[in-house]
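Minutes, project check-in
Item: structure for the 119-residue chain
Input as provided by the requester:
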Amino acid sequence: MIVMHGERLYGKVDHVPGLFYVATRFFYLQYVPLIPLGSVLILDGTEKDGNYQGARIPFSVKSMLVAWLRTGLVIGGVCLAFAGIAVLCLLVLPAARRARLDAGYRADIGTKSLSVEPT
């Protein structure tokens, strides 16, 4: 199993187009930001391949919360998608299959004539 970890910028906030934005450096595991390491002011357009030009600034709580909120929403969306697929497979499809079988069974009974032979 491959484990991705390291340091990366998350929580891009307060973007002034053409000038700068604020982001927070996080220690991440499997691209999930875990531990905030500090905030930076990044010059717009200089972030390439993990490198950037900017300056350290006091810790930005807003940037940290935005990073964790976005991550939580993505993880929550994936969980809801799996839950929806599970509900579809476990409840909806078997019910539709049963309804199809019942309809076919009723059609078979309706076309056959029943005769009772005396014994």
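Outcome recorded: The helical segments are 61-111.
No further action items on this chain.
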